[in-house]
Amino acid sequence: MATLFTKTKLYLESNSKIWDYTKVELTDNSDGNGAFISSWSYDIAEPTADQIASYETAGNTEEALQTVLNNRANDYPSIVDQLDDIYHNGIDAWKATIKTTKDKYPKWVI
Question: What is the extent of the structural domain holding 69?
Answer without folding.
Answer: 1-74
